[in-house]
Design brief:
By secondary structure, this protein is mainly α. The protein has ten helices and two strands. A two-stranded antiparallel sheet has the order 1-2.
């Protein structure tokens, strides 16, 4: 079993705070258009930060001093950070997917992806690329649990479809960030499933 480093602990604590996005939509910006405007503003802000961290010495030094310790190597080298992908994924999910499926998908990202990483690092059973089977099982179980305890009145079959899709999105070894893939794909899968089932 591997020990989980301080970097990953910080990353996962921040990742859990992604629940703020669906909670914000439920309790504060309830109108879909208002939420889209807010998320669009956040995406623009994030992209400005992404640009300036390579062009502004002040922002670059801030990242190096306070954030580098928990950033992935490819993020340090200039790739988009996970936080930017979170807001992009949330925006596209809210645009494409109606409630409650969009909300469920965003909760899947916050909880399922976080647990997948923690379990995968602590109990690395059967490596699949850079991921693990143990992490994927944890992701599926957590997404299913979240779908069942949230009172969104979604059919169990649809929750299973969403949990399975979120798990595959977290697992597949492609270059698109899973902070984008998980909510978009699981949300769309649940919405399409609700039409078909």
């Amino acid at each position: 079993m591997f020990n989980i480093g301080i970097r990953e602990i910080f990353r996962k604590v921040i990742h859990i705070f992604n629940i703020i996005i669906p909670l914000f939509h439920i309790y504060i910006l309830k109108d879909k258009i208002d939420m889209i405007i807010f998320l669009s503003a956040m995406v623009i802000f994030c992209f400005f930060i992404e640009i300036f961290r390579s062009q502004s010495s002040f922002i670059s030094k801030f990242f190096e001093k306070y954030l580098f310790f928990m950033m992935r190597s490819f993020e340090k080298q200039g790739s988009l950070t996970g936080s930017t992908w979170v807001f992009v994924g949330a925006l596209i999910t809210i645009i494409l997917v109606p409630q409650p499926f969009s909300l469920l998908a965003l909760f899947f990202l916050a909880f399922g992806d976080t647990l997948a990483a923690l379990v995968g690092m602590k109990f690395p059973l059967i490596k699949i690329g850079s991921k693990t089977l143990s992490g994927s099982i944890a992701c599926f179980i957590m997404c299913l649990f979240v779908g069942l305890i949230l009172n969104f009145e979604v059919n169990l079959k649809i929750i299973l479809i969403g949990a399975f899709t979120a798990t595959i999105a977290e697992l597949i070894p492609i270059k698109i960030n899973d902070n984008f893939l998980i909510p978009v794909l699981s949300g769309c899968a649940m919405y399409l499933g609700s039409i078909i089932v």
